[in-house]
Design a protein that fits this description.
This protein is of the alpha/beta class. The protein is built from 13 helices and 23 strands. It folds into 3 domains: about 180 residues, FAD/NAD(P)-binding domain (3-Layer(bba) Sandwich); about 120 residues, FAD/NAD(P)-binding domain, CATH 3.50.50.60; about 120 residues, Enolase-like, domain 1 (2-Layer Sandwich), CATH 3.30.390.30.
Amino acid sequence: MAGACHRFAIESSGKRGENAGHMAEFDFDLAVVGGGSGGYAAARTAVDAGLRTVVIDGAEELGGLCILRGCMPTKAMLEAAEVLHLAGNTAPWGIQTTGAGFDYAQVLARKRFLIDEFAGYRRQQLQAGRFTLRRAPARFLDPHTLDLGAAGTLTARNFVLSTGSVPAPAPLPALAALDCATSDDALAWEQLPESVIVLGGGLVAVEFAQLLVRFGVRVALVQRGTHLLRGFDTDAAEVLATVLRREGVDLYTGTELLDADRAGGQKRVRFRHGDREVTLAAAEVLLASGRVPNTAGLDLARAGVVTEGARIVTNAAQQTSAPHIYAAGDCTGKHEIVHIAIQQGEIAAHNIARPERRREMDYRLVTSVGFTEPQVATVGLTERRAQAEGVQYIAANYPFADHGKSMIMHALDGFVKLLADPATGEILGGACVGPQGGELIHEIIAAMYKRMTVAELAAMPHYHPTLAEIWTYPAEELAGQVVPAQS
């Protein structure tokens, strides 16, 4: 299945890299630990460069987090919830519907079908014979030797570690006694619980909160921070908070967890909210406070790899403190984003094969998307980050409630926003909270990739009426504010 979130090209040739000689010393030129998106990208790139490569994956099922338990299953479920929501809210268009309902078993069956398609394609890639595949857990015995358990040992001249992430541990010890669900568990629920307390305020938490409430589950979301979506500006988070509350989510921000227990067949969570204590009870508690790098079993100290907590520390070339060991993806802890993992894997393998043509990651265009409704998306600088880093900028936004195509769609929540350099007009960042925000943000990614100015974006033709033309309004406003620096 060619659409399963893993298409990036990298320059390569048939020439074997300098590190590929002296094969008598090692079993392989490169060992990739982890067969998800980042690991597969590294292996594919290495093979194209002529390196003898092995991929080691000890997971019960091949496919990686994105396909099996992350991007693809959650988005399949969110899409079903969106269709259900629209079917039950047709009055603004003058359309009358009655009795819109759902068969959750069929919703799950469709999700499983799609995931089987995506995972089947990844398994085909991993098992195609371009490189050796070993199904085994791996841990370092020394800087060049891996213990594969019952599968023995192997040696390699170089390594790429791409072991992904696992759900973060409970933020309160008392929660451990509640047998709380993780996002992995929630995706596998055969039946929906009557009520759920969601702990967390990031993208995983808000996506699950809206998904569940739209399927008729009573949902309370408890967030430690003062607003949702820590990586987004407050104005974007406030839009989503308003929508979640409107749809029935009981939302608590700025909280401090105090205790958790069971009572009357329910799971209870007690927390401080403002100047009062609140106790909530529900059938399930969903820990959605994020994920942590999956590195605990690697024995990285034996390989000389420095970590910060569980995160593998790398430089911009994806190289760890051990010069022959590189890392990519969630295990590096910087950006838990699939296309970033792919780029990191490609750059790591390229730098192993072509050290004389070293490449580095450029995070200027880091993008984040939440597939709630409205969707939330950002690329480049946010206002919060620009202020924290002392970056000079000008900003302008425009609401969807005053935009023709979104009014036609009755998609009135949210806005788009642009940040630009006040002296040159170069676009420094963009945010979109609104209909198809994950798609619309790509116009700003493209503009920033080519280092366009707001004047150039405003002058670029946009078809009418479309959602995309909304970007021209803040671009035009900012173009009039640019004041070139005096030479």
